[in-house]
Structures are given as structure tokens and as C-alpha cells.
Amino acid sequence: MPVYEYEHTGEPCGRGKRFEIHQHIEDEHLKVCPNCGGAVERLIPRIYVSTPVTDSELKSKGFAKLVRRDEGVYENVTALDGESRVMEAGKPHTLPDIKRRISD
After folding, report:
1. What pLDDT is attached to residue 90?
2. Which of 33, 47, 88, 92 is most buried (most C-beta within 10 Å)?
């Protein structure tokens, strides 16, 4: 069951100002604290998403990063072994090999 975080809107009880509770995903949000009966609001959870920032992180996660070098010419800075480092418009053999990067 998911864990939801609630906060007292008034004075906190023994559970504290904020508390967590296990609820079924289809259950109604709590309006009152099950401990003291005081009014509570459900908080929106903070979600941490780690985004790759370096070229090596992008490459290790299967991304291809293309940097424009000229009109219709891009450098594949995350090229895998056997891939072309330069991608040119109108030349499909210079495209990154997506099938090598993505697996089922």
C-alpha cells in the first residue's frame, strides 16, 4: 500500500505536525487526523528525479547527444563503438544506432 503524508492545519497532536499513513490508493483522502480528530490536509509528495548531466552519463543511460557543428552536420558526442561520430543530413548511415541503445 502507498504511504501518504498529511499535515495538521491546526495544532499538532502526538503524531506531530506532519505524519505518514498507509492507505489503499482508492481510499478517500483523510480530512481529520485518526489520532486526535483535528483537521488535516494531504501533502503532494516531492519526487526526486536524477537527470544525467554529463556526456558519459547520457551515453551510459542509452541517450544520444547531437551537437550542431554546421548546416546539416551534427557531432554525436555520445557515439558508441562502431557509430559515426559525425551525422550528416541526408546520410542515414551516419545516424546513431538506436537498436543498440534501446533493448526490450
Report:
1. 92
2. 33
Co-location of 9 and 37 in the same domain:
yes
Q: In what order do the strands lie in the sheet with 73-76?
A: 66-70, 73-76, 86-88
Number of other CB atoms surrounding residue 13 within 10 Å? 16
Give the pLDDT mean for 20-31: 91
Query: Do 26 and 61 belong to one domain?
Result: no
Cell of 87: 551525422
Phi, then psi, of 22 in degrees rounded to 5:
-80, 125
Do the domain assignments include residue 32?
yes
Which has the closest alpha carbon to 52: 39, 42, 40, 65? 65
Question: In the chain, how many domains are there?
Answer: 2
At 61-96, the pLDDT tens digits run 888 999 999 999 999 999 999 899 999 999 999 988
Could you list the residue range(s) of the whole structural domain that residue 90 is in? 55-101
> Side chain identity at 24, as an amino acid letter?
H
